[in-house]
C-alpha cells in the first residue's frame, strides 16, 4: 500500500524544566489519520471504498473482489485475531499500521512483514 501515511505529525513538547528547550516529539497518528491514504490508494486502483461497514474499518469493492482493511495505531495480537476473523468475510484482508519509527527498515520490521504476509 501507499506509504504516504508514514509521516507523523510533530508537535513541540515542553519538558517543564527551566532551561530545557522544548523538543520536537513525534505524535503517533490516530486511526482516522490512516483512513485517507489507504482510501486514496484503493480509489486510485479502481475500488469503491466505504468506511465502517459491519465493524470493518474499510471495505473496498471492485467487481467481485472484496477487500477489508483494519486500521490500528499499533501492531498487536488482538489486531491479528481481528484480521483473521475478518477472513470469514473475504480472503483479502489487510491491516494498516504506522511503521514504528524506532524499528525503521531493520531486520525486526522485515521479519514482522514476512510473518504478516504468511497469514
Give the overall shape, derived from the CA principal axes. globular
Q: Which bin fits the share of residues in helices?
A: 25-40%
Distance between the termini: 17 Å
Query: Can you tell me the residue ranges where pLDDT is under 50 for at least 5 consecutive residues?
Result: 1-17
- The average pLDDT is 77
| CATH hierarchy class name | Alpha Beta
Polypeptide structure, described:
The relative contact order is 0.15. The two termini are 17 Å apart. It contains 3 helices and 6 strands, in the order ββαβββαβα. The protein is α+β, with helices and mostly antiparallel strands.
List strands and helices in order, with pairings.
Layout: E1 9-13, E2 23-27, H1 31-44, E3 48-53, E4 56-62, E5 65-71, H2 77-86, E6 92-96, H3 107-118
Parallel strand pairs: 5-6
Antiparallel strand pairs: 1-2, 3-4, 4-5
